[in-house]
């Protein structure tokens, strides 16, 4: 029991921030949180349309991993004191619409969306890994470990999409290009706003 005048301080979830490149870390955590939030909304949209179909369990499995990713980035945002992007309400709607819209094209359409998004995110994570290694791999060890694991999960989702006939979607290359352009815009904006 604290004595008179003494205060009780609970353990902090914050990370020691000495020596870190705060603008780089803020940008990485903010955009990755937004991306995982958007991915959750995409899978929610796909499940709303295809949840009871034969591909429903596959989508649910990928969505469960995305939920874990989002949970981790929520924790990192608190630990590193990073504010979320102000665009979350937009990504909420846009992600769900993209997921449901691609699922309305059928299983192949949903998988084409998955391939396009996950390929973009894997590439994005690889760029972040390079940035953090150039900065100081030891200093950013925890974040690097998280990003590498999530990149591997996203690559697995990409491969699952290919295994489920994503490339057989009508106008696959047009759909993929359009979705990936949207991903690039979302990444650019979420890093900054």
TrEMBL record:
<dbReference type="GO" id="GO:0008682">
    <property type="term" value="F:3-demethoxyubiquinol 3-hydroxylase activity"/>
</dbReference>
<dbReference type="InterPro" id="IPR011566">
    <property type="entry name" value="Ubq_synth_Coq7"/>
</dbReference>
<comment type="pathway">
    <text>Cofactor biosynthesis; ubiquinone biosynthesis.</text>
</comment>
<dbReference type="GO" id="GO:0008340">
    <property type="term" value="P:determination of adult lifespan"/>
</dbReference>
<dbReference type="GO" id="GO:0046872">
    <property type="term" value="F:metal ion binding"/>
</dbReference>
<keyword id="KW-0479">Metal-binding</keyword>
<keyword id="KW-0472">Membrane</keyword>
<dbReference type="Pfam" id="PF03232">
    <property type="entry name" value="COQ7"/>
</dbReference>
<keyword id="KW-0408">Iron</keyword>
<keyword id="KW-0831">Ubiquinone biosynthesis</keyword>
<dbReference type="GO" id="GO:0006744">
    <property type="term" value="P:ubiquinone biosynthetic process"/>
</dbReference>
<dbReference type="InterPro" id="IPR009078">
    <property type="entry name" value="Ferritin-like_SF"/>
</dbReference>
<dbReference type="InterPro" id="IPR012347">
    <property type="entry name" value="Ferritin-like"/>
</dbReference>
<protein>
    <submittedName>
        <fullName>COQ7 protein</fullName>
    </submittedName>
</protein>
<dbReference type="GO" id="GO:0010468">
    <property type="term" value="P:regulation of gene expression"/>
</dbReference>
<dbReference type="GO" id="GO:0005634">
    <property type="term" value="C:nucleus"/>
</dbReference>
<dbReference type="GO" id="GO:2000377">
    <property type="term" value="P:regulation of reactive oxygen species metabolic process"/>
</dbReference>
<keyword id="KW-0560">Oxidoreductase</keyword>
<dbReference type="GO" id="GO:0005743">
    <property type="term" value="C:mitochondrial inner membrane"/>
</dbReference>
<keyword id="KW-0503">Monooxygenase</keyword>
């Amino acid at each position: 029991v604290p004595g008179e005048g003494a205060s009780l301080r609970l353990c902090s979830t914050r990370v020691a921030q000495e020596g870190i490149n705060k603008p780089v870390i803020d940008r990485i955590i903010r955009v990755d949180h937004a991306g995982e939030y958007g991915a959750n909304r995409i899978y929610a949209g796909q499940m709303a349309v295809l949840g009871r179909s034969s591909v429903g369990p596959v989508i649910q499995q990928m969505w469960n991993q995305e939920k874990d990713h989002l949970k981790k980035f929520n924790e990192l945002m608190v630990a590193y004191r990073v504010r979320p992007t102000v665009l979350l309400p937009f990504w909420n709607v846009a992600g769900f619409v993209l997921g449901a819209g691609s699922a309305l094209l059928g299983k192949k359409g949903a998988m084409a969306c998955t391939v396009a998004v996950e390929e973009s995110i894997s590439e994005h994570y690889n760029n972040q890994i390079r940035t953090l290694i150039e900065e100081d791999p030891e200093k950013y060890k925890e974040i690097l470990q998280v990003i590498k694991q999530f990149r591997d999960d996203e690559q697995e989702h990409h491969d699952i999409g290919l295994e489920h006939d994503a490339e057989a979607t009508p106008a696959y290359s047009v759909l993929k290009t359009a979705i990936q352009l949207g991903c690039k815009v979302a990444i650019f904006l979420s890093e900054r706003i």
